[in-house]
Amino acid sequence: MCIEIFEQDAYVFEFEASVTSVEGDWVSLDATAFYPGGGGQVHDLGKICGLDVKEVRRKGGDIIHSVPKHSLKAGDKIWCSVDWERRYDLMKGHTAEHLLFGSLKREVPELNIVKIFISPDSKYVIVDTDVPWDSIKKAQESVNSAIRDNLPVTKSTVSKDDPDIGEIRAKLERIEGDVMTVVEIGDVDVAACSGIHVRETEEIVALLVDRKVSAGKDGVAIHFRIGDDAISRSMELSNICLQMIETLGTKPEDAVKAAQNIRHEAGTKASQLRTAVSRLIADLRPETMNGIPVYSGIFDTDDRNTMTDAAEKIKNGGGVAVLFAKSETISVFLSSGTKGIDCSKVLKDAVSKTNGRGGGKADFAQGGVPDVTVAETLMNDILTAVKNSIAQK
Predict the structure, then answer these.
(1) Do 194 and 181 form a contact (C-beta atoms < 8 A)?
(2) Sheet strand arrangement including 330-336
(3) Is a pLDDT exceeding 80 seen at residue 178?
């Protein structure tokens, strides 16, 4: 059984150990300070005998270390070192995540955690409910207050039968055995966790939530930064916001409302443009080729959905559609409700002459051309190819 030094003292990053077994690149030790990852925190990296440790993981009751190109054998006494700066960043990030989610939960009581991810490059928590920015602001203020108060961070073990178990933030169904490890941060947060943490909150320095994005069916990912990175990013975002406020020509407190108004106006205009383009397409008069109606047109829009829907409708009616959406580039939509026209081949042949790209199926193809000045020429080339295909039927 490997002694887990990181459980005893997460601040130990250099240690001596004996090799207990070797299997290819994987090395087992009688004791290790390398954290194998868990609770959303990635595994440690570092050196064993001066060689890079590429991965650390649990294997049953053991912890194994991937050390490519090693020549170790069982019984060897070795010197090991964890990449301390990386480890310390992960420890701070993990403790910060506890504070952040606990604070968010107080703002939005129905909030549930779905996933945690703590790495050197990305730190986020996925929650099952969207959280308003006002609530994130309050939670962030609470976290930074806890950091400034330099609260102690302690670990203990608690039985699942403990009468006070309801006071602990935990998913009991995920915890194996009858005892769980609990991390307590002052009197502001207590949660089940087997990860590694800092001793005092002041070590985190600062926390900044810098974005939230959709996590698909899982919910919303709330990304955060810590330490000097948080301070640097907050200054960067502050400058961006000040530039936006100056561009909007409004007061800081009115900037959000001004942006919302602009977005609403843009949405209204986009809706009006979609309606106008739809009417123009509906008013198209087809050219009949061998009894087949061919609809063609060039429209000043970047609304691909409207063009796709129109091309599908014409195809379903047995006709052929050659529709261009022209904005900064040209988007080409070619569909056919009659056999004998290979839309994919016709489109690829045409756009290849204009540094464009395209593809699709025999009955529906799409493509793009960067040079808008070739619109008329490209339209004529495609229509000619369509006429030739129809004539050969």
Answers:
(1) yes
(2) 287-289, 292-300, 320-326, 330-336, 364-369, 357-360
(3) no
d(CA 222, CA 365): 38
End-to-end CA distance of the chain: 77
Q: Tokens in use for 126?
A: 């996925």
pLDDT at 393 over 70: no
Burial (CB < 10 A; 0-12, 13-18, 19+), residue 385, is buried
Query: Residue 173: what pLDDT?
Result: 61
Give the tens place of pLDDT for each residue, 280-323: 988 999 999 888 999 999 999 988 999 999 999 999 999 999 99
Largest CA distance in the chain: 87
In 3D space, the residue among 197, 181, 187, 213 whose CA is nearest the CA of residue 95 turns out to be 197
Helix (H), strand (E) at residue 291: none
Let me know: does 367 contact 357? Beta carbons within 8 Å. Answer: yes
More confident residue, 177 or 340: 340
CA angle (381, 362, 278) in 5-degree steps: 70
Paired with 153 in beta bridges are 185
Given a contact cutoff of 8 angstroms between Cβ atoms, the answer to whether 277 and 303 are in contact is: yes
Burial grade of 375 (CB within 10 A; 0-12, 13-18, 19 or more): middle
- The model's pLDDT over 240-261, given as tens digits with 9 standing for 90+, comes to 999 999 999 999 999 989 999 9
Residue 355 backbone dihedrals phi, psi, to 5 degrees: 60, 25
